[in-house]
Specification:
Thiol Ester Dehydrase, Chain A, 6 strands, single chain, alpha+beta, 173 residues
């Protein structure tokens, strides 16, 4: 499948935007109402925080409302406990025509030692929507270094795999 050129994909859209312009950092504190009987934060609570962080990141990049289209790889790596500080960071990995991939990372911070550890990593796809709620073209992302290019290439591969799975689901049995 031929990839559209940047000029075709982003016709009528401004210059590429830097990843720094949309970088998002959020902080939460884990309170008893966020936790299960073991004192660990509910997975659904973390997922809600991740969705908000990802949406803010996408919206900053597109300068318009973005909706969650897919969550590709949400992995809980370590527990987060009552009293922990939670730091969420979001960054854009790649942009497509009307969607973009956002990488959200969740770290717990021990309030006594300030030591941080990664607890959740996830990749999410958001779709930019216009005032009528229809998908619209997103601005391109400026790829500034080898890491940015690597992230972009991996995001394109994940997108192709996701689209192939969607095509398989829609085939008649």
């Amino acid at each position: 499948m031929r990839r559209a050129s940047l000029s075709d994909r982003f016709r009528g859209v401004s210059e590429p935007r830097s990843k720094g312009a949309s970088f998002t950092e959020m902080t939460e504190v884990v309170l008893p109402q966020h936790a299960n009987v073991l004192g660990s934060v509910f997975g659904g609570t973390v997922m809600a925080w991740v969705d908000v962080c990802g949406a803010i990141t996408a919206q900053r990049h597109c300068k318009r409302v973005c909706v969650t289209a897919a969550v590709d790889d949400l992995a809980f790596l370590a527990p987060i406990r009552v009293g922990d500080i939670v730091r969420l960071t979001g960054r854009v990995n790649a942009t497509f025509r009307t969607s973009l991939e956002v990488d959200v990372r969740v770290e717990r911070e021990d309030p006594r030692t300030l030591e941080r550890s990664v607890c959740v990593e996830t990749l999410m796809t958001f779709v930019a929507v216009d005032d009528e709620g229809r998908p619209c073209v997103v601005p391109p992302l400026a790829y500034e270094n080898d890491d940015d290019t690597r992230r972009r290439d991996a995001a394109y591969a994940r997108r192709e795999a996701r689209l192939a799975r969607a095509r398989e689901r829609t085939k008649a049995p």
